[in-house]
């Protein structure tokens, strides 16, 4: 199995930048021996534990609560558009959830890839760092007194390394329910949604028996009305965010023609495990269609598992980081986590402004090639996410990108070879060859110790 070294990390490997040093001072979680302490709660580790200290350090950052940070600005921009009498806003859920909350209540199959250790950060067998805000649906559906709710939170997934992927990111989720059969109330609520300044290409059918089916317990009319209310609500979000961004572009002096054109959106049918029917909304932005959010009618099993009887409703989810990158012109997702004031002081509450680059430090590349063990009986199965995690553990945010550049199987021995290319580039300083070589050697050593690979 994949395990993490408990030996002290060398100062020259992870503490060589002021940014990393600062991040180490603002953690709220500690991994020590056989216990992980997060927000004052101790969790016993076991064979499922795979979360490193570098990820635990991020759990106390809570960027979505910072009013002067792009993530917080975007989150508040959306929430401020909705009536607190209609929606309850949750912003302070703790990041550790149970496997029941994150997977079981949402009816994730036992063999779903999201449950695997290669995709998810486990505290232990029964607890993990949430992989989506839907992990709190169970609690919200049971406890919320208003017809709907919004959740904003940081979420965590083991993932690839590039300018748009980071192991910690942010989501916003919304949901709303009605008593089944309360058609008149749904119609009334639908009429109360404010108009939007959009050109909308809507769905041509409320559902499709084969490609986007409705649920058996709902009538055609219920499905149609709930779907309409959902799509109109999501259009309010898109209208609020992207038209505000267009205004900011004009104020900044941009003469791009698209800023004076009506904002266009289109709805496309989709599939999600916990909603049916389901859709995605795409926005025409700077000459291309951008996927903005996914949504759908909540499956009955989710409401049943949450103890919400005789109800129907909708839910949506939106990733805040990639939208914020577009709106604020941030070229690298790592910048959101920077503690450099040259980044943070560029933004202010309730205002979308374009990021002004303050530096471009030179980068350098290193390739790591190795043979995988021919027999996996006594070794852990290898997943690319395992390489990415080792790279993050020793290189942190000094690594801009990791990609696999070659895979090869020897025709005679049957052994498989992989080659990964690591692009090192700091956002805060020029890296020396000595620093890069030290990190690279630590990554190589960890690979041989944990996966019994043969370096080439």
From TrEMBL:
Compartments in which it is found: Mitochondrion matrix
Q: Which UniProt keywords apply?
A: Aminoacyl-tRNA synthetase, ATP-binding, Ligase, Mitochondrion, Nucleotide-binding, Protein biosynthesis, Transit peptide
One GO process term, biological-process aspect: phenylalanyl-tRNA aminoacylation
Principal location: mitochondrion
Domain named FDX-ACB: residues: 359-456
Task: Name the InterPro entries on file.
Answer: aa-tRNA-synth_II (IPR006195), aa-tRNA-synth_II/BPL/LPL (IPR045864), Fdx_antiC-bd (IPR005121), Fdx_antiC-bd_sf (IPR036690), Phe-tRNA-synth_IIc_mito (IPR004530), Phenylalanyl-tRNA_Synthase (IPR002319)
Q: Where is the Aminoacyl-transfer RNA synthetases class-II family profile domain?
A: 153-357
The record, for CDD domains, names:
PheRS_alpha_core (cd00496)
Name the domain of life: Eukaryota
| PROSITE patterns noted in UniProt | AA_TRNA_LIGASE_II, FDX_ACB
Which major enzyme category is it?
A: ligase
Q: Which residues form a coiled coil?
A: none
Q: Which Gene3D superfamilies match?
A: Bira Bifunctional Protein, Domain 2, Ferrodoxin-fold anticodon-binding domain
Q: Which family does it belong to?
A: Belongs to the class-II aminoacyl-tRNA synthetase family.
Q: What does this protein do?
A: Is responsible for the charging of tRNA(Phe) with phenylalanine in mitochondrial translation.
Q: Which PANTHER family match?
A: PHENYLALANINE--TRNA LIGASE, MITOCHONDRIAL, PHENYLALANYL-TRNA SYNTHETASE
What name goes with this protein?
Answer: Phenylalanine--tRNA ligase, mitochondrial
Q: Supply the source organism's classification.
A: Eukaryota, Fungi, Dikarya, Ascomycota, Saccharomycotina
């Amino acid at each position: 199995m994949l395990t993490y070294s408990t030996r002290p990390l060398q100062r020259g490997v992870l503490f060589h930048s002021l940014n990393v040093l600062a991040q180490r001072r603002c953690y709220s979680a500690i991994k020590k021996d056989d216990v992980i302490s997060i927000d004052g709660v101790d969790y016993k580790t076991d064979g499922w534990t795979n979360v490193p200290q570098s990820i635990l350090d991020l759990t106390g950052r809570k960027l979505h609560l910072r009013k002067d940070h792009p993530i917080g600005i975007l989150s508040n921009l959306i929430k401020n558009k909705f009536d607190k009498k209609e929606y309850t806003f949750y912003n302070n859920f703790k990041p550790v959830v149970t496997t029941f909350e994150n997977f079981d209540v949402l009816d994730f199959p036992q063999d779903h890839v999201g449950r695997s250790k290669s995709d998810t950060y486990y505290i232990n067998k029964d607890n993990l760092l949430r992989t989506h805000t839907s992990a709190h649906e169970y609690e919200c559906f049971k406890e919320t007194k208003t017809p709907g709710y919004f959740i904003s939170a940081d979420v965590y997934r083991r993932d690839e390394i590039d300018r748009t992927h980071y192991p910690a990111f942010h989501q916003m989720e919304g949901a709303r329910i009605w008593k089944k059969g309360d058609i008149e109330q749904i119609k009334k609520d639908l009429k109360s949604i404010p108009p939007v300044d959009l050109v909308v290409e809507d769905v041509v059918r409320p559902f499709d028996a084969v490609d986007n089916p409705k649920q058996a317990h709902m009538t055609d009319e219920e499905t149609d009305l709930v779907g309409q209310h959902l799509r109109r609500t999501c259009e309010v979000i898109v209208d609020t965010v992207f038209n505000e961004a267009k205004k900011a572009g004009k104020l900044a002096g941009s003469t791009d023609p698209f800023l004076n054109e009506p904002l266009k959106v289109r709805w496309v049918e989709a599939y999600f495990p916990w909603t049916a029917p389901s859709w995605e909304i795409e926005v025409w932005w700077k000459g291309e269609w951008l996927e903005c959010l996914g949504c759908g009618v909540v499956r009955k099993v989710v409401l049943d598992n949450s103890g919400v009887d005789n109800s129907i409703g909708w839910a949506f989810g939106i990733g805040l980081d990639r939208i914020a990158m577009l709106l604020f012109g941030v070229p690298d997702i790592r910048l959101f986590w920077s503690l450099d004031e040259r980044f943070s002081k560029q933004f202010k509450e309730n205002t979308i402004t374009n990021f002004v680059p303050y530096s471009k430090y030179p980068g350098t590349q290193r390739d790591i090639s190795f043979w995988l063990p021919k027999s996996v009986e006594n070794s852990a199965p290898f997943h690319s996410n395992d390489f990415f995690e080792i790279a993050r553990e020793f290189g942190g945010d000094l690594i801009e990108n990791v990609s696999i550049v070659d895979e090869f199987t020897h025709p005679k021995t049957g052994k498989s070879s992989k080659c990964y290319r690591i692009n090192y580039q700091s956002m805060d300083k020029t890296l020396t060859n000595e620093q890069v070589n030290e990190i690279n050697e630590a990554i190589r050593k960890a690979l041989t110790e944990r996966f019994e690979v043969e370096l080439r």
